[in-house]
Amino acid sequence: MRYEKILTKEIAEQFRKKKIEVQLDEFTAIEDAAAESLSKHEDYLNLDGLTSLSDAAAESLSKHEGTLSLHGLTSLSDATAAIPLPRFTKPPSLPMRRRLTPIPMATYS
After folding, report:
1. Are 48 and 28 in contact (CB under 8 A)?
2. 23: burial class by Cβ within 10 Å (0-12, 13-18, 19+)?
């Protein structure tokens, strides 16, 4: 049985204005409103626990100006895969990329 831990807007708001690296990799899912809130965070944002993103969450996170880590993603819709996301700490690992819809490397720059 898989346990899902959801990152809510209320939790995200606690970290949004911090001028430090934020580690939220224990969360496996994110509310769209939480992604919108975190898009305003300006430093490193670790969301490696997320396994998928809604189109709305991906659109919000594409506005993030710091470094974004999403290495836990295992699925994206075609619409989400087309959204250019901000800088990653490194491109997703090769095994993960084989499970995803192909994403042009230019997306990671």
Report:
1. no
2. middle
| Residue linked to tokens 């192909």 | 102
* Residues making up the chain, counted from first to last: 109
Measure the CA–CA gap between 84 and 24, rounded to whole angstroms.
Answer: 21
Give the 3-state secondary structure of residue 100: coil
Q: Are 84 and 61 in contact (CB under 8 A)?
A: no
Separation of alpha carbons 98 and 27, rounded Å: 23
List helix spans (H) across 1-109. 9-16, 32-38, 55-61, 78-81, 94-99
Residue pLDDT, tens place only, 30-63? 999 999 999 998 888 899 999 888 999 999 998 8
Write down the pTM of the prediction: 0.75
Mention every residue, 6+ apart, whose C-beta is less than 8 A from residue 44: 21, 22, 66, 67, 68, 69, 89
